[in-house]
Design brief:
By secondary structure, the chain is an alpha/beta fold. 56% of the residues lie in helices and 11% in strands.
Length: 690
Amino acid sequence: MRTSEISSRGLAALYAVVVFLSAFLLFQVQPLIGKCILPWFGGTPAVWTTCMLVFQLLLFGGYAYAHLTAKFLSPRGQAWLHIGMLMAALCTLPIIPDASWKPAGEETPALRIVLLLVATIGLPYFILSSTSPLVQSWFSRTHAGQTPYRLYSLSNVGSLLALLSYPFVVEPSLATDSQASLWSWAFAVFAALCAWVAVRMFLVDPIQTLVPSPTNALAIARPGWGLTAQWFGLAMTASILLLAITNQVCLDVAVVPFLWVLPLALYLLTFILCFESERWYSRRYYTVIAVVLLLAAINMIRLGSEVSILLQIATYFGMMFSCCMVCHGELAAIKPHPRYLTAYFLTISAGGAAGGLFVGLLAPMLFVSYNEFYFGIFCFMFLFITLRLREDNFRWPLPNWTCPLAVAGLILLVLGLLVQAGRHTTGNIAVSRNFYGVLRVLRANEPQSDEPMLQLAHGRITHGSQFVAEDKQHIPTAYYAESTGIGKLLASFDAGEPRHIGVVGLGIGTLAAYGRPGDRIRMYEINPQVIELAREHFSFLRDCAAEQTIITGDARLSLEFEPPQQFDVLVLDAFSGDAIPVHLLTSEAVQVYLKHLKPNGILACHISNLHFNLKPVLAGLAAEQAMSVAFHSNPPDAQTAALAASWAMLARSPECLAQALPSPSEATTPPVGRPIVWTDNRSNLLQVMW
């Protein structure tokens, strides 16, 4: 008996190790593979949303596999099937995606990401997803009377540690290739342990196996459709809020693993707290906090860039955490008997996948702006109120006279959400949404001169503006005015000298205003709708005197495959938005640019940014490539609608820079401090946050 008890404890410990390791690997691979493929698809927030959709669908598939095998197969059959699946998954390692998956420019990005992920990590991720519910099912068989839900909390702890360790330990310490190699070896260790658990599971003493008696089976009521719908709805709402808020933050700040990991870690933390013990969740406390932060987040969107980046992140993620605590707290309160454990987790994963499908696929087709954020808030309020009203012992906790006020307040909140959601679509000349985001063409006045202008906006960022008055439409404005670094650089060429200019990032085509007869301008733009709006609503491209070529697709990938273009100037203008495409500022990227520059050519980088100081990165890249660098900043000018802009100029020799910026007062020396060199395998945006 004592030996059997020791064996049982040892088996339980082995269960715990396998569950923890599977969860750790499951959530370590998410930011890893996301970072690998992010540069291939333009560094847009939709890359991570699409990845999350695939992860959730694979998670649902793993939970369905666990549920069906536990329901229809004997313990021995479950064990042998799972061992076979583990061996098949090992054959797909390592997990580094092949370069053949890089887009050529014509494919649908979302579909290619889905196929890439399924081919690269599909089977290992599927197996890891199925491990937690399947092992918990085995635990309930071999350890009668003990709750398996503690293993679920342990799996969430493993997931949380994986997410937190990635941006702070793994990403800064290891190159991407090394991360993938280490992960693959760890998966092999997991597979061996999991196979051993499977073998031990059907070799245990039959007395330990839980076989409910007919009396107990009748006493355990099967969850009805109403309860199942509650599981599904709560899980779906939390998933929508997670993805919608992550999208919102990445749009306004940056598309980096840290801002993927932090909300996902908070999401998992709510699971850990709610399923570990009932004492962590207070309905009244978290509901009040959720409503307060919900209102603050809505106001944050209205205020825009007036609010500091840290306050934005804290408010958005605080709201998401409190709302998910409510969703998962209610979910834990209505969990079923362990007999229905796999069905319960299957329903939760189905709800999460439904939320991912909505944000990743349906929302871009239904909404012309990022209204899934408001839809998630509405779902949260509707679901919570509905569940509360359905309770048999529900009583209004406040005096009766406050009930009409609460209803009126709720109506006003919903109306406010509708007004706020419609704010980005009213008053616009054109609104367009696709995989790369939401674009708006709007009419606005120049703040100081009050001149009417047309602008192209992406979220809070203006990607170009043009005077409405016909006699001023030829004037370059914003970050590209004649007083800016790029304006002075292009003016430094002799009048009769033909120039070959490359431009990464089209915007509204403002730089085409500098085109002269005999010039050639080659522009690279990843978003087809930017090209369409620039041609339809702005005249810079139509009025340009130079020969123009526009290449659709990611600029870096296009430049990698093209023969040397012999540019006099190559302009990088993909950094004025708050979301930084890091892959355009790596050592490997600069080597690609140098291939296309003439020996005396100049690389001009637009680095104006509210949240990140990119000067150390440009200084580091210049030093590594034995190049000279100078920085130019200008004040705003109401007459030409010039904005305060920062430009970095890199050249193979200081003489080239002296010709481009002849006045010493116009060039600044590199910033004091240690230069930073980013590579494709290693970069950390936290290093350059203001």
